[in-house]
Amino acid sequence: MSFKEEQGKKVEVIETILKKYLPEQEGYQKVIMEAMEYSVMAGGKRLRPMLMLETFHLFGGNSDIIEPFMAAIEMIHTYSLVHDDLPAMDNDDYRRGRKTTHVVYGEGMGILAGDALLNYAFETAAKAFSMYQTKALEIGKAIQVLAQKAGIYGMIGGQVVDVESAGNAVSKEVLDFIYELKTSALIESSMMIGAILAGASEEAIKDIETIAKNVGIAFQIQDDILDVTSTAEVLGKPILSDEKNEKTTYVTLVGLDKAKEYVEKISLEAIELLHRFETNDLFLEELLKSLIHREK
Ligand code: GRG
Asked: From the CB of 182, is ligand 1 less than 6 Å away?
């Protein structure tokens, strides 16, 4: 099976898990469950749950304890996109090839759908406690990482500096801070949770955090590159949005060619670090390599 075929099969497995953990559409508040499903099931690369599952396997994990966490990380990621698209943020009408949640359900419901996904992510992750009562310590630690990396010391913190910096010149130091928090933090959380739930050592979890940090920064720089080199049809979202929002990016700071070189350099560093974990499963390595030249 080719890498692309294997990746496609894994996306199908992830989407089945996502559907399983989304709430029933019922009650007077039914519209919020519909908006949650609309935004989560809109497609997307499913990179974060995929990295979580692959890291879980890397450390010998092989149970369904990982499933509620895979659903939770995609819910948090999706909430961030729903809120990022709101009129008060980037004010975008298209995401993942279809109308954004606030365009379809109205701005108020867009805000609530994001809030609902964030909260429901933790309700979902906590389901692991009743599934595996003997793993309470690992599950508690995984929930702690999930909360911290999504919060003010993670994704929200990065977004705060990003929003505050729009329209101003930003130094490389501040840009690195924004990328590490806004984008790497959720990728770190994904891979660390996979390692934690598989019972990896503290040292291994630290190494995984470093690998994921590099993967996240490279991913964000590639996002900057695609914003100026791709098309709205391929990306499923508007292009040139950084220019519209007056944002400093790696492309504006160091130029397109250097930005491309940097993506390759730090991705290869991450892959090199991964080699310290012995495995005969090459999918994770291929996945990281595929991100270097990803087209969407
Ligand atoms: C609390 C009002 C409020 C807003 C929060 C935290 C936040 C908004 C936004 C997060 C910032 C953000 C959107 C970072 C960008 C990270 C990134 C490159 C996302 C795109 O991820 P992909 O390409 O998307 O994996 P798909 O659609 O494939 O899942």
From this structure: yes
**Which of 39, 46, 84 maximizes ligand 1 atoms within 8 Å of its Cβ, making it the mutation to test the pocket?**
84
d(CA 182, CA 243): 18
Ligand 1 in contact with 84 (CB < 6 A)?
A: yes
Closest CA to 155 of 184, 129, 193: 184
| Structure confidence at residue 279 as a pLDDT band (50, 70, 90) | confident
Cα–Cα distance, 206 to 227 (Å, whole number): 32
- What dihedral do alpha carbons 126, 113, 45, 8 form, nearest 10°? 70
Question: Cα separation of 107 and 117, whole Å?
Answer: 15
In the reported structure, the alpha carbon of residue 134 is separated from the centroid of ligand 1 by a whole-number distance in angstroms of 34
Taken in order of first residue, the domains within the chain and their CATH numbers are: 3-292 (1.10.600.10)
Between 188 and 243, the higher pLDDT residue? 188
Using a 10 angstrom Cβ sphere, with 0-12 exposed, 13-18 middle and 19 or more buried, the burial of residue 91 is middle
